[in-house]
Specification:
- There is one protein chain.
- It is built from two helices and ten strands; from the N terminus they run αββββββββββα.
- By secondary structure, it is an alpha+beta fold.
- The strands form two sheets. Strands 4-1-3-8-7 form a five-stranded antiparallel beta sheet, with no helix packed on it. It has a five-stranded mixed beta sheet with strand order 2-10-9-5-6, with no helix packed on it.
- It is rod-shaped, with a radius of gyration of 26 Å.
Length: 188
């Protein structure tokens, strides 16, 4: 019974807020403002591919922006969003709440003009990702003014196999020399 009352209350708030903010359009564009990958040091993934190595774990930091003044797209403002990052069959998600919210003025004073969302992923690159050339992002959320599902685009990646360290190669060489030396002694 309590769940039903809570759902009814949420529905009434959404209807009330939709009517109260009738002068506002509650629609704008979402875009990824910054993407960085560490420890790679790809400071701006939006302009250059992320260089990733199999077996390594990376931290991906992303800031998304809601811009009501750019009406090239028509997506509703939502207070909490989820961003999905996909590379091949692997997928990671993170949820963020809006911050730095700036409200409109005049006829849109109850409308949100700007909002920011910060996401963070810890991704581990697996061997089955060697043939992948891009990472995909999908932003989603729901609110009183509608549901959001926006493809945020594909960003280039270069996935490579790990390069053996010089120390590892030296140990292998030393081991082979030892085996050759032992087999020579046995023959003599």
């Amino acid at each position: 019974m309590k769940k039903l009352l809570v759902l009814l209350l949420i529905g009434m708030i959404c209807v009330f807020s939709s009517n109260a903010f009738a002068g506002a359009d509650w629609a704008g564009e979402y875009y990824l403002d910054s993407l960085s990958v560490t420890p790679v040091g790809t400071t701006d993934w939006t302009t250059s591919p992320a260089e990733l190595v199999v077996g390594q774990t990376y931290q991906v930091d992303i800031t998304a922006v809601y811009d009501d003044d750019n009406l090239s797209d028509d997506y509703p403002y939502v207070g909490t969003t989820t961003l999905a990052l996909s590379i091949g069959a692997a997928s990671w998600t993170d949820t963020a709440s809006a911050y730095g919210v700036i409200y409109g003025s005049g006829s849109e004073e109850n409308d949100v003009d700007w909002a920011y969302y910060d996401f963070q992923f810890d991704i581990t690159i697996e061997a089955d990702m060697l043939d992948e050339t891009y990472a995909s992002f999908l932003l989603s959320g729901s609110g009183c003014h509608g549901n959001l599902s926006q493809d945020m685009g594909d960003y280039d990646i270069n996935v490579s196999a790990p390069i053996p360290e010089p120390g590892t190669i030296m140990l292998l060489g030393l081991g082979l020399l030892s085996v050759a030396g032992i087999s020579r002694r046995k023959k003599a």
